[in-house]
Amino acid sequence: MRVFVTGASGWIGSAVTDELLAHDHEVVGLARSDEAAAALVAKGAKAHHGSLDDPESLAAAAKHSDAVIHLAFKHDFDDYAASGHTEHTAVQRMLDVLEGSDHPFLLASGLASGITGRPLTEDDPAPFHGADSMRGGSENLALEYADRGVRSVALRFAPTVHGMRDHGFTSRLTQVARERGAAGYVGDGSTRWAAVHRSDAAQMVRLALELAPAGARVHAVGEEGIASRDIAAAIGDFLGVPAASVAPDDVESHFGWIGRFFGMDITASSARTRELLGWTPTGPTLFEDIAAGAYALGG
Ligand SMILES: NC(=O)c1ccc[n+]([C@@H]2O[C@H](COP(=O)([O-])OP(=O)(O)OC[C@H]3O[C@@H](n4cnc5c(N)ncnc54)[C@H](OP(=O)(O)O)[C@@H]3O)[C@@H](O)[C@H]2O)c1
């Protein structure tokens, strides 16, 4: 398939691009800089110049592809509402041109749901609707088009998609631990995060492109839930600093924006995804990556 991949230069997108190319798909990656375009071409992909801020550039590429994998996102946690609005507009514009095509449209989403006491499953809808909600409500927006001739699929990534040179959430936590001289966790540290290795996530995306039906939600989850106090302990062991509880009132001042996410209980099953796609995660665990120095540079 000729696949338009937004975010092809990113952490997950570059692994997805490699995975697709290795399985005989053609990749057209969104690039907003000459550097990103050159990197795509060097690995055998094509580059499409454009931006999330220019929805017409996305629509043009979506229209001339057999499938879209939308992974680009503005990770501006100081103005997350604006990121959500951009996301909503970009997704809406691509869906407009795909309507009636029966082409796959896979988009990145997350596992935050507000559900506590049990892991989120693929059957649980996201509670976010509309441009003003988290991530612009883009997951539900896309899935609405499953009845309108788009094979839309939600790719729900664990909050830490980890691996060597990861610059995401675990990297930020490590950086804060280094700066503070202690690896913090919120309260009693009983909230949990699901996790997945980047290589497993990329394989799951490719399998979802090939196999997932319209309206599916798939979970890139290798480990269902790791207690935040254990994540802090693993980071502390690596850095040689103690793990320490941070009182809920001090979360913002201690952690900055990452505290908002580290205090959330984000646990999820991937049993149905494994069955649907025949997917078995085999990559290193989060603790194996931390111990191996994946976060040595601290983000
Ligand atoms: N990594 C995780 O642990 C994780 C967990 C849950 C969900 N997710 C979601 O999965 C998706 C991929 O995440 P990631 O970790 O790969 O993100 P990332 O490494 O930060 O990459 C973001 C990508 O989006 C592109 N981008 C950002 N702003 C853009 C704009 N204005 N126009 C065009 N492209 C733009 C970046 O392009 P440049 O290279 O030019 O900057 C990059 O290719 C995102 O939606 C993210 O929220 C990730």
Written description of the protein model:
This protein has helices at residues 11-22, 34-42, 55-63, 80-98, 138-144, 169-180, 198-211, 228-239, 251-255, 258-262, 271-277, 286-291; strands at residues 2-6, 26-31, 46-49, 67-70, 103-109, 150-157, 160-162, 183-186, 192-197, 216-220, 223-227, 243-246. It has a seven-stranded parallel β-sheet, with helices on both faces. It has a three-stranded mixed β-sheet with strand order 7-9-11. The chain starts with a strand and ends in an 8-residue tail after the last helix. It has 299 residues and is of the alpha/beta class. It is globular and about 55 Å long. Helix 1 (11-22) crosses helix 7, helix 3 (55-63) runs parallel beside helix 4 and helix 6 (169-180) packs across helix 8. The chain is built from twelve helices and twelve strands. The mean pLDDT is 96.
